[in-house]
Amino acid sequence: MFVDYKSMFHTLNYTKNTFPQLLYLTKVLYFAKVIDMEINWNEKENKQLLRAVLSLKSETEAKAFLRDLLTSGEIVECAKRLQTAQMLIDKVPYSTIETETGFSSTTVARVAKWLSNGKGGYKLILNKIHHHTTSPNKERRVLMH
Length: 145
Hints:
By secondary structure, this protein is mostly helical. The protein contains eight helices and no strands.
């Protein structure tokens, strides 16, 4: 993601109301870095998280772990992102996805970006879910890598 910080800085209107503009610019710069930040999977804490996820053996264990790890809002957000990814694969229009999930067009576009240019996680997990839940008489479209 390319953010032209210099031109953003120069567009600030230097008046007595500059503080809110600077606050906004600070937020934009912070979130631009956080969104594009690469995760170092070799850090101790990140390895521990991966081991924790890989050790889950049942739906009950997964529910307990996710509920302790995340807020209820974060769980709902993750579930809706997964739903959005499936809907994008199924070629559902953005407007329908926005209505059904309550997401903004920006969030739908972000999921679409990760779906097409990410690490393949959405497609991987949707294929696994599809494999475990599809009956012979019921097909669901899931993109392959």
